Amino acid sequence: ANNYATADLFVDGVDALPGVPYGQGTSISVSAPTTPRSFAVRSAPDTTTIASSQLVVANQGTYALILTQRASGAGLLVLPDTVSSPPVNSIGLRVINAAPAAGVVDVYITGADSTTLTTPVATNIPFEGVMNYKYVGVGTVHVVLTTAGTKTILLDVNASQLTAGQVRSVLVIDAAGGEFPLDGLGIPDVG
After folding, report:
1. Is-contact 20 9, C-beta < 8 A?
2. pLDDT computed for residue 45 by the predictor
3. Are 62 and 30 a contacting pair, CB within 8 Å?
4. What is the pLDDT of residue 156?
5. How many CA atoms are closer than 13 Å to the CA of 145, on its beta-carbon side?
6. What gap in Å lies between CA 28 and CA 21, rounded to an integer?
7. Is 91 in contact with 162 (CB distance < 8 Å)?
8. 83 and 166 in contact (C-beta within 8 Å)?
9. Average pLDDT for residues 158-184, to the nearest whole number?
10. pLDDT tens-digit profile of 11-56?
11. For residues 83 and 48, is the Cβ–Cβ distance under 8 A?
């Protein structure tokens, strides 16, 4: 969330990830008891919880926890990574709209010419909304976000560096100070 330069992630009251800067991520492993785990985010170095969630962690489960900036306060998205391996010679992509400035977006997956937009692969993805995984052949691939219902490009992410079998979530965020230009962070889901 762009109003917080750094944040700490607490798991069951213990500071598991201190000082994570805006626009960056990291990973941790937690055990999977049968009772819910408590996840809380605090704005570093403050001790006030700005967002929290309870989650029963599945054994060997993988989740993305994403701090978002709402009009009033912050939110914590908890998304299970339920991806399967892509078909042969393909990559997988999903989009997570965590940018309040973007509003509602349409998503296109294009080849070399990312300015020629035909049919979106997903429409009307709201703030804090998620596009299901899409699988495309390897090669020159761009993920293009537009204002919903238009062809006004908000973000063009080059995913051409991905190789067969890799899957990424494109996390769309505001600029560090909020608003534009948007940025897209690649979260590795598989490979």
Report:
1. yes
2. 79
3. no
4. 97
5. 28
6. 16
7. yes
8. no
9. 93
10. 999 999 999 999 888 888 888 888 999 999 998 878 889 999 999 9
11. no
